[in-house]
Amino acid sequence: MLDIGKTNIKLTALDEGAGVLAEARCANAAVNLPPYRQHDVERIWHWLLETLRAWAGRFDVRAIVPVTHGATAALVGACDHDLALPVLDYEAELPEAGYQAVRPPFANTCSPALPAGLNLGRQLHWQQQAHADGFQRARHILLYPQYWAWRLSGVAASELTSLGCHTDLWQPHARAYSSLVSAMGWEPLMPPLHSAGAVLGVLLPELARQTGIRADCRIICGIHDSNASLLRHLDGGRKTVLSTGTWVIAAAINAPPQTLNESLDMLANVSAYGTPVSCMRFMGGREFSVLTGAEQQVCKVADLVHIIARGTLATPCFAAIGGPFAGQQGRLLGPQPRTAPERYALATLYCALMTDYCLAQMDPDAPVVVEGSFTANPYFAAVLAALRPGRHVTVSDDASGTTSGGWMLATGKPLPAAPELRPASALHLPGLAAYARHWRDICCAPHATL
User: Fold this and answer.
1) Dihedral through CA 109, CA 111, CA 114, CA 119, nearest 10?
2) Alpha carbon 84 to its chain's center
3) Distances (CA, A) of 395 to 152, 225, 260, 373, 415
4) Which phi and psi angles does 226 have, rounded to 5°?
5) What is the CB neighbour count within 10 angstroms for residue 242?
């Protein structure tokens, strides 16, 4: 499985029982090159081929599943591997350029108006205006997982989880393209729709020769990473799945009908089965790193208690884009943390408070399942449980839901064994309830003073 996240890239070899045989990683970063900030797709491509070449003698690779972050698309030309324009990074600052005049209403797309290029429609609209010559060369608009599937198989496809990821391109309830697609003349550029688990073809013969991977290796259409994590939870039960990484995304599975609040960065993503899933998110992994700094040192319970007792608060936002408090400037209030463990404690409290706020807006009484990178934090789930007394919080023993989802797509089977869900025991943190109330009062009234 090829997992391209905003911060890291991972290639994982899985056996027939979904066990991990091997894993390779490398850092991912956008590059500032003309004509705009862009993804370094050629570096990713060469790393992928080198890793596959190294694995060819060790594993019988029968299928490759691309899983990537959202809000990204490639404009590909008529020639093999040809990009009509570089792949734009969604964190690039874009001018408004009249986009609001053609943007579909939130009621239709369930896609909130977001900053930078987080609405993919805004990226494409700007590229079409600012780089018209390159845009006219485009033969297809490929969402990011399908771009990598195309490079591996030569087959162009569209897919719902990436189309429905706050792009402004899709109407999840109508299961149809939005008015933006027709208004901008993009329909001819959208390849046929395929399911995330569809086999688009086999590895291109040239790539099979270069890497030594078997010629009949199946290339799967691919999926948006948060939706890959959701796959194993789409069993009919009511729960909120907390996918944690660069983004923390709360997905309310089988929640009662609710009104989404666009101003709070609430949205409907689209599951691998094409159904809308109410979500809310913030850039938690990025903000955690900003708060801890370069030196991350796990705290102790005493550090959490100390931060609360001193009234040291971190209030949003420490990332430039996304989240329910987008546009507010992050602040550290009260005595400043002095050590790396204290910074880790403050970051943990901040992310737990932000998560609790999001959960309260979604399906507040539903059981919560924590998975992803925050499962490695020994206190995050325990603090979250303390903030939500009487509500069930569990932690998945499998930190990579994307890997499990990729295996399910490749095999068309449910997981051989469901991941163990470990109950999170609420930490006893004196003063936490008052600390949380004070934090919410400041966040919801950003000009309030201590």
Assistant:
1) -70
2) 26
3) 35, 19, 26, 11, 18
4) -65, -35
5) 28
For residue 167, which of 93, 238, 110 has the smallest C-alpha distance? 110
Q: How far apart are CA 405 and CA 95, in angstroms?
A: 36
Q: How far apart are CA 406 and CA 220, in angstroms?
A: 9
Q: How many whole angstroms separate alpha carbon 225 and alpha carbon 347?
A: 24
Helices (DSSP H) in 102-234: which residue ranges?
106-109, 120-130, 132-136, 144-153, 160-163, 179-183, 205-211, 225-230
What is this structure's pTM?
0.88
What's the chain's average pLDDT? 94
The two tokens of residue 56 are 């060819």
Q: What angle do CA 115, 320, 158 make, to 5 degrees?
A: 45
* Model confidence band, residue 15 (pLDDT cutoffs 50, 70, 90): very high
Percentages helix, strand, coil for the chain (3-state, rounded to 5) are: 35, 20, 45
pLDDT tens-place string over residues 371-415: 989 999 999 999 999 999 999 999 987 657 889 899 999 999 988
Distances in Å between the Cα of 160 and the Cα atoms of 47, 176, 372 are: 28, 10, 23
Query: Exposure pattern of 46-84 as b/e (b: 16+ CB <10 Å)?
Result: ebbeebbeebbeeeebebbbbbbbbbbbbbbeeeeeebb
What is the per-residue pLDDT for 294?
86
Q: How far apart are CA 207 and CA 201, in angstroms?
A: 13
Q: Can you name the residues that pair with 62 across neighbouring β-strands?
A: none
With a pLDDT cut of 70, the percent of the chain lying above it is: 98
Q: What whole-number distance in Å separates Cα of residue 276 and Cα of residue 447?
A: 36
Tell the burial category of 193 from Cβ atoms under 10 Å away from its Cβ (0-12, 13-18, 19+).
Answer: middle
Give the residue from 23, 81, 56, 84 showing the smallest Cα distance to 204.
81
DSSP H or E stretch at residue 30: strand 30-33
